[in-house]
Design goal:
The structure is a homodimer of 173-residue chains. Helix content of chain A is 62%, strand content 5%. Chain A is mainly α and 173 residues long. Chain A has a single domain, classed as Four Helix Bundle (Hemerythrin (Met), subunit A) (Up-down Bundle), CATH 1.20.120. The termini of chain A are far apart.
């Protein structure tokens, strides 16, 4: 019954959310994550975690290594293989907060510069992301965003456990 | 310079993500959150947290109290006021895992049943959500989803701190 209902809805839907929305949505989330990185004390950013999880610098590097090679793949269909991604090599993680923030800002620029190459048709096209994940490009991009929200939420717990007030979740464009 | 680039992109974007995608995206995330609720031991679901944060049952109730009244508001423009939402009254929180899951499933049904009433035009319309947040309806719905991912990520930390393996983040439709 629910299935019929959904099919009725989709038959009339012509596309609601534009490419521009997706870019702003992503960069808005990335701006908040940047403020979470900044909120960590230098040492705890690279060392503190709860429940045996990865420190926030490693989580942020996962976002960087998805977002940078991910936007290039989305735009050009040239994807790094999963095993080529930097977060599989912990030596590639910057060792200071400033270096991590610089890397973050570099990815922000890469996303802005590649985005205009991604047409609406390309967003709908099925691509094999990182040689492994077959999905429409827009779904792959939502995966990056959702993965970032997920891990950033974990960073909020780390900050609270450290007695630090995190930046407000709702403060995004 | 980046602004010019974005404007170029948006001028040609006609709408990529359909209403159907948004519903599946939301319900997919909700199905995962349900598995996270299930993963908690009964007692810890209502009592355990890290860093003085709310236990996961309270976070799940926030999602329920946004999602249920939120979908009704999106469909009918009759919004509960923020101060009328149940999560401002902790007595309204179910006291067993099963009761919380039942409440969760009830909201799943409400979302399915109201969704067909929401046209693409309505999704783009600006509405005053909960008498307080003025945004296009689709943006309000994304807020609910993102808020759920954010708090569910926190639940993952609670589970890890309890020595429990959470359900895989990527396992969504």
């Amino acid at each position: 019954m629910a299935t019929n209902t959904v099919q009725t809805g989709s038959a009339t839907s012509t596309g609601v959310f534009t490419s521009e929305f997706l870019l702003k949505h992503w960069q808005g989330h990335r701006a908040l994550t940047r403020r979470v990185i900044e909120a960590f004390p230098e040492k705890e950013l690279f060392s503190f975690s709860v429940g045996g999880m990865r420190p926030f610098a490693e989580l942020a590097m996962e976002m960087i290594d998805m977002g940078g090679p991910g936007i290039v793949g989305a735009a050009t269909d040239v994807w790094k293989k999963v095993e080529e991604l930097d977060h599989y090599d912990k030596k590639a993680i910057p060792t200071t907060k400033q270096a991590l923030l610089d890397r973050w800002d570099e990815i922000t620029g890469i996303i802005e510069s590649y985005w205009p190459q991604i047409s609406d048709e390309r967003l709908r096209e099925v691509a094999l992301a990182f040689g492994m994940y077959e999905n429409p490009v827009y779904k792959t991009l939502f995966y990056f965003i959702d993965n970032e929200i997920h891990h950033r939420g974990q960073g909020y717990v780390y900050l609270r456990a450290l007695g630090i007030e995190p930046p407000p979740f709702w403060d995004r464009p």
